[in-house]
């Protein structure tokens, strides 16, 4: 996880962001990986009950989804970002006959677009999607609105607010950085436009 409001990162959408979150790195650390697996399993069980299957969102949600499914003794499938261009042209990979009720595992939720695209593919395949569990979410309003419209509940192990509080406590960021980081979360598009315009001190 990196917070650099003065040197923003560029998302695939083209938007500038002061944060870069790569949960895939957690897979390289057994203690962290195990802790996340345990927390995902607990969240799935407590928030949605035990489903018949776990589904991971490609690519970041696949490994963590497999770990959770293994711990729970459940079948696993994963959802591609788009249908495969050859063979059976599947978007959902795995044996869907093994379960009907599904909880989706995602590593990171930003705008919610790709996460809910996976949910739509599962619903189209006649799965009963009980909910989604993610490792992290930015808690963007756009995502909240998208999940509400999709009538799907998201439970995240941690979020942007917790991250900023810890970053301040650890002196990883300054109060001045915090102002800019909060401004980004309130209006990412405006923050990005100002960053592209070369304004270093972005204020709400």
Helix content: 40-55%
Beta strands, count? 10
What top-tier CATH class fits best? Alpha Beta
Q: Provide the low-confidence segments as ranges.
A: 200-204
Strand order of the largest sheet: 7-6-5-8-9-10
Radius of gyration, CA atoms, in whole angstroms: 18 Å
Global structural class: alpha/beta
CATH topology annotation: Rossmann fold
Assess the beta-strand content as a share of residues.
15-25%
* Integer count of domains: 1
Describe the sheet with the most strands. Answer: 6 strands, mixed
CA-to-CA gap between the ends? Answer: 23 Å
Mean pLDDT: 91
The CATH architecture classification is 3-Layer(aba) Sandwich
SSE pattern: EEEEHEHEEEHEHEHHH
Shape descriptor reads globular
- How many individual helices? 7
Describe the protein's architecture and organization.
The chain is an alpha/beta fold and 204 residues long. It has a single domain, classed as Rossmann fold (3-Layer(aba) Sandwich). The protein contains 7 helices and 10 strands. It has a 6-stranded mixed beta sheet, with helices on both faces. The chain has a two-stranded antiparallel ribbon with strand order 1-4. Helix 2 (60-72) links the parallel strand 5 and strand 6. Helix 1 (30-48) crosses helix 2 (60-72) and helix 6 (175-186) crosses helix 7. The two termini are 23 Å apart. Residues 200-204 have low confidence and may be disordered.
């Amino acid at each position: 996880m990196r917070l650099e409001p003065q040197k923003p990162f560029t998302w695939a959408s083209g938007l500038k962001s002061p944060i870069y979150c790569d949960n895939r790195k957690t897979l390289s650390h057994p203690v962290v990986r195990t802790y996340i697996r345990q927390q995902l399993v607990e969240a799935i069980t407590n928030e949605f009950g035990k489903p018949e299957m776990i589904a991971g969102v490609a690519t970041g949600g696949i490994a963590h989804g497999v770990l959770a499914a293994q711990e729970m003794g459940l079948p696993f499938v994963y959802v591609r970002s788009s249908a495969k261009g050859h063979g059976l042209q599947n978007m959902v990979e795995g044996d869907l006959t093994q379960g009907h009720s599904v909880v989706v595992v995602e590593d990171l939720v930003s705008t919610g677009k790709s996460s809910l695209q996976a949910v739509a593919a599962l619903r189209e395949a006649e799965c009963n999607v009980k909910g989604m569990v993610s490792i992290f979410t930015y808690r963007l309003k756009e995502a909240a609105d998208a999940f509400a419209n999709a009538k799907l509940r998201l439970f995240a192990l941690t979020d942007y607010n917790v991250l900023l509080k810890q970053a301040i406590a650890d002196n990883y960021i300054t109060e001045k950085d915090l102002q800019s980081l909060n401004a980004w979360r309130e209006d990412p598009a405006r923050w990005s436009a100002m960053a592209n315009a070369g304004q270093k001190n972005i204020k709400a």
